[in-house]
Specification:
Neuraminidase; 1% helix; 2 helices; elongated; 4-stranded antiparallel beta sheet; mainly beta
Length: 602
């Protein structure tokens, strides 16, 4: 058994209290509290996935903070009156707007919100409403009708600026006192599709489009002092349909549409004088909305890659989250129903189905940043399973297009045939290694469910103990003698978890959310379950400690029928279906926090 002294080279200091140093990683024994203590000063700055938005949406009005957010209206512009509230984890419904609309602006808080302007401009461009935490009531109308405008401030001290009138962008600024709007100083540059931050007496306007032409994206920033606007520092990226958060001297801008028409994930931070580059968002998108502060912002909705319409992202600076998903390099081809193996820095994807082909034999290898092609499978197939490493992998069963019993072994460059499984099936799960593999569950031809377990010794498969309930679309991970199965269809959705000891399965702690078509990675005592269908496609992630599941940071892209691999602290998810089409998106999962060896206190 390894001791702390053997690993580090010194014994642990015995202190009656806290350590006088603040060195990251210091460990000591607090004799007063009779426990071990450590310093963890490592911080995280960047975007992490939040709770999935209830519907596909863009062009929302927003108010509030990262943990107490408010959204309302949205596109399609003339039909949406919905309001939703965010508690830092999940969205719940609030009272509907009196006037349904999109491309409106917002200000205030979750319990004292303000919504104003909107599309269509001729009928909704002056409408103002006030929210009390449960319902909306009409306030005083804007003087200038407009949509695609920006807002800042509070319910009783609001600021509206820019936007498009019936035909062209406007530079009009208006101030709200809780009852009525009055004209303020005009923007220097008339623009639409801009973003804003700050307060009524210290506002900030940035980005947008100034006509002509419609591609005239702006990098210009303007600062408001309560009566007039003056120029501030330009953004590095000229863009429109962007989002912002924060104050005039500490602001954040993210997402939007660039001059070349592409969507961006770029984030910039403003210090009251100039913008500097920040951590990119997970999803590049336009027509998104934002709220919060420069160190704790929230982005929601928008259009771009599949899944962005419901995507919520949380920006944090100077915190230590337990876990987070981040973007990885895209697969070379959008693929679903594929198999996976390996680790976050040495991953393997194989087989599946693409928009161009019902089954493929393509293999791709991941190096931690990008995917490149490897040797093709001998049998093209979809809905297969995989396990092992990038250089010693197993591809098992699947549909080709009929149900297959084939096993193939990968050596890092090519696949060779291994022993056939005893029971033909697809929609199964796998665990273990190339020479000690485990498969379980699935669908037998033509449509019966299986509870069969088989074990592989590197040459042939033999029967193991059956899982308690026959099911398909299940998740699994672990080893041949310590396997884990979770979720699936029985045929109803299930949250049941079972643990394998090399001969039989016993019940473990249930998933918090029953689902099918999910995936996972890790070990029996340290696992991750992610994605799936509930029955809607989800981005939920849960962590298992050998006893119980706890909710963790959500994936940025909801998906089913995807590949996954790695240990709990450094996993990988790739491909799958977020909606109607396959995706090529890859996400990397990381957990933060120390893992201590057995400690010697003498």
């Amino acid at each position: 058994m390894t001791t702390y002294k053997e690993v580090i080279g010194t014994s642990i200091t015995n202190i009656a209290g806290d350590s006088p140093t603040t060195v990251d990683g210091d460990v000591w024994y607090n004799s007063s509290a009779t426990n071990f203590k450590f310093n963890l000063t490592t911080t995280f700055t960047g975007w992490a996935s939040g709770g999935l938005y209830p519907s596909d949406i863009s062009a929302l009005g927003t108010a509030g903070t990262q943990t107490a957010a408010l959204t309302f209206g949205g596109s399609p512009s003339g039909s949406n009156a919905s309001t939703f509230e965010y508690n830092g984890t999940a969205w719940t419904g609030g009272g509907n707007l009196t006037t349904a609309r999109g491309y409106l602006a917002g200000a205030g808080t979750q319990t004292a919100g303000l919504g104003f302007g909107g599309s269509p401009v001729e009928t909704k461009g002056t409408a103002t409403e006030e929210y009390n935490g449960s319902s909306w009531t009409n306030g005083g109308n804007l003087t200038t009708e407009r949509f695609t405008l920006a807002g800042a401030g509070t319910q009783t001290a609001g600021l509206a600026f820019g936007g498009r009138g019936p035909s062209v962008p406007t530079n009009a600024t208006e101030e709200y006192n809780g009852t009525a709007w009055t004209n303020g100083g005009n923007l220097t540059t008339a623009r639409k599709y801009l973003a804003g931050a700050g307060t009524q007496t210290a506002g900030l306007a940035f980005g947008g489009i100034a006509n002509p032409p419609n591609t005239n994206q702006q990098a210009a920033t303007e600062e408001y002092n309560g009566s007039s606007w003056t120029n501030g520092g330009n953004m590095a990226n000229a863009r429109s349909q962007l989002a912002g958060a924060g104050l005039q001297t500490a602001a954040l801008v993210f997402g939007g549409k660039l001059t070349d028409g592409s969507n961006t994930s770029a984030t910039e931070q403003y210090n009251g004088t100039s913008w500097t580059a920040g951590s990119n968002m997970i999803l590049a998108r336009k027509s998104l909305s934002g709220m919060g502060t420069s160190t704790a912002a929230l982005a929601v909705g928008g259009t771009g890659v599949p899944g962005s319409e419901r995507g919520t992202e949380e920006f944090s600076q100077g915190v230590s989250p337990f876990a987070a998903w981040s973007s990885g390099g895209n697969l070379t081809t959008a693929t679903q129903a594929l198999g996976g193996a390996g680790t976050q820095t040495a991953g393997l994807a194989f087989g599946g189905r693409t928009p161009a082909a019902d089954v493929v034999n393509v293999t791709q290898e991941y190096d931690g940043s990008s995917w490149t092609n490897g040797g093709n499978l001998n049998v093209a197939r979809k809905y297969l399973s995989g396990t092992g490493t990038q250089t010693t992998a197993l591809a098992v069963s699947g549909a080709a297009p009929g149900t297959s019993n084939k096993t193939e072994e990968y050596d890092g460059s090519s696949w060779t045939n291994g022993g056939n499984i005893g029971t033909n099936r697809k929609f199964l799960a796998a665990a273990g290694t190339q020479t000690a593999g485990l498969i379980f569950g699935g669908q037998l031809p033509p449509d019966a469910l299986s509870n069969s377990t088989e074990e592989y010794n590197g040459t042939s498969w033999t029967d193991g103990g059956n899982i308690g309930t026959a099911k398909k679309y299940l998740g699994g991970c672990g080893t041949q003698t310590a396997g884990l199965v979770f979720g699936g269809q029985t045929p109803s959705l299930t949250n049941v978890t079972q643990e394998y000891d090399g001969s039989s399965w016993t019940n473990g702690g249930n998933l918090n959310t029953a689902r099918e078509k999910l995936n996972g990675f890790g070990l029996q005592t340290a696992a991750v379950a992610c994605g799936g269908e509930t029955p809607s496609v989800t981005n939920l992630t849960e962590l298992y400690n050998g006893t119980a599941w706890t909710n963790s940071a959500n994936m940025s892209t909801s998906r089913i029928n995807f590949g996954a691999d790695g240990p709990q602290e450094a996993g990988l998810a790739f491909g799958g279906i977020p909606g109607s089409e396959a995706t090529n998106r890859t996400e990397e999962f990381s957990t933060f926090g120390p893992s201590l060896a057995t400690i010697e206190t003498t």
